[in-house]
């Protein structure tokens, strides 16, 4: 029986960013250097496949530092941690490695600089997301106010409307962030922004690729985890850009084939914490059911690489 034809438009760039790649390498190098087990506070990146793969190599994932023994190394996730976490690790004389993405660390430094200049900070981010928790935890309580929507801006109670700065979570929707920034500037004309956009290059590039692909396909699949902010934003961007069916899937097993029975074109991308092997798995699942033609749609080239911390490059 002849398989129905299907065109897959494959986004490029997609998948792992430099910060995620660095964080995974940090865990692998720590296991090589100190042996198993190595503890990791929070999921190193938001992807179950990655976490399970590292667990099989000897990583133990915990939510809080008090779940870690004093005599084993601990790694802080790519999302960043509040200052109290490394301070507590030092108090306990623990070996720790900070895998915070350098672009998240840049936001931490910005917040501290603004605070040192006497400004109160407004953080644009998602309540409870580990990156937001980590950034807000760089400063004393009350010094960082969180907003998630333009409506939140109208409810802000600030110390001095003329002494404010804003920072953003690095994985937000570019459009959503722009709307909130516009609301902040309308209410607080003197508010100070970052020297360079906080939303990271990988988030921006992946969203732009989806904007290009989404209006040209019958369906869009984003390979990523439900707790991955940047992956969920890709689904939202695809829907806004005109794709009638935009869905998040962790693995090929989650694809709703009944919903895709009549499609003739599908866009595929992956969040910044999703490995390429999962993208290939999804494409193979389509090949089993359709006569597939793959077109790569490249909207940007990425060649960013971040070094791992010096402690991992020194002899044991």
From TrEMBL:
GO MF annotation: an example: 4-hydroxy-3-methylbut-2-enyl diphosphate reductase activity
Chain residues that bind (2E)-4-hydroxy-3-methylbut-2-enyl diphosphate: 46, 79, 129, 170, 228-230, 273
Keywords: 4Fe-4S, Iron, Iron-sulfur, Isoprene biosynthesis, Metal-binding, Oxidoreductase
One protein family per Pfam: LYTB
Binding site for dimethylallyl diphosphate: 46, 79, 129, 228-230, 273
UniProt xrefs under CDD domains: lytB_ispH
UniProt binding sites for [4Fe-4S] cluster: 17, 101, 200
InterPro entries the UniProt entry points to: LytB/IspH
Reaction catalysed by this enzyme: isopentenyl diphosphate + 2 oxidized [2Fe-2S]-[ferredoxin] + H2O = (2E)-4-hydroxy-3-methylbut-2-enyl diphosphate + 2 reduced [2Fe-2S]-[ferredoxin] + 2 H(+); dimethylallyl diphosphate + 2 oxidized [2Fe-2S]-[ferredoxin] + H2O = (2E)-4-hydroxy-3-methylbut-2-enyl diphosphate + 2 reduced [2Fe-2S]-[ferredoxin] + 2 H(+)
Residues that coordinate or bind isopentenyl diphosphate: 46, 79, 129, 228-230, 273
Any one GO biological process: dimethylallyl diphosphate biosynthetic process
Enzyme class: oxidoreductase
Source organism superkingdom: Bacteria
Cofactor list: [4Fe-4S] cluster
Keyword Nucleus among record annotations: no
EC number: 1.17.7.4
Keyword Disulfide bond: no
Active-site residue list: 131
Biological role: Catalyzes the conversion of 1-hydroxy-2-methyl-2-(E)-butenyl 4-diphosphate (HMBPP) into a mixture of isopentenyl diphosphate (IPP) and dimethylallyl diphosphate (DMAPP). Acts in the terminal step of the DOXP/MEP pathway for isoprenoid precursor biosynthesis.
Family: Belongs to the IspH family.
PANTHER family assigned to the protein according to its UniProt record, in alphabetical order: 4-HYDROXY-3-METHYLBUT-2-ENYL DIPHOSPHATE REDUCTASE (PTHR30426:SF0)
Protein name (database record): 4-hydroxy-3-methylbut-2-enyl diphosphate reductase
Designated gene of the protein: ispH
């Amino acid at each position: 029986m002849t398989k129905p034809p299907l065109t897959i438009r494959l986004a490029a760039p997609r998948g792992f960013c430099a910060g995620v790649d660095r964080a995974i390498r940090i865990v692998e190098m720590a296991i090589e250097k100190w042996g198993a087990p190595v503890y990791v506070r929070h999921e190193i990146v938001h992807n179950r496949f990655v976490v399970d793969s590292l667990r099989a190599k000897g990583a133990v994932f915990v939510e809080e530092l008090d779940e870690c023994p004093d005599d084993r190394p601990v790694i802080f996730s790519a999302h960043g941690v509040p200052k109290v976490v490394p301070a507590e690790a030092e108090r306990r004389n623990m070996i720790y490695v900070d895998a915070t993405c350098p672009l998240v660390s840049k936001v931490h430094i910005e917040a501290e600089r603004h605070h040192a200049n006497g400004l109160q900070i407004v953080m644009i981010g998602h309540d409870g997301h580990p990156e937001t928790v980590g950034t807000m935890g760089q400063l004393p309580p009350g010094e960082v106010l969180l907003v998630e929507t333009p409506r939140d801006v109208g409810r802000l109670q600030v110390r001095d409307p003329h002494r404010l700065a804003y920072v953003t979570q690095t994985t937000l929707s570019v459009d959503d962030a722009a709307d909130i920034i516009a609301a902040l500037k309308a209410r607080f004309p003197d508010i100070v922004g970052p020297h360079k956009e906080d939303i990271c290059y990988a988030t921006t590039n992946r969203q732009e690729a989806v904007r290009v692909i989404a209006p040209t396909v019958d369906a869009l699949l984003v390979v990523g985890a439900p707790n991955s902010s940047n992956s969920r934003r890709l689904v939202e961007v695809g829907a806004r850009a005109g794709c009638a069916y935009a869905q998040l899937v962790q693995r090929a097993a989650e694809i709703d084939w009944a919903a895709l029975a009549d499609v003739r074109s599908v866009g595929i991308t992956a969040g910044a914490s999703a490995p390429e092997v999962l993208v290939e798995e999804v494409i193979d699942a389509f090949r089993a059911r359709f006569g597939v033609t793959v077109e790569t749609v490249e909207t940007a080239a990425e060649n960013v690489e971040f070094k791992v911390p010096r402690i991992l490059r020194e002899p044991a």
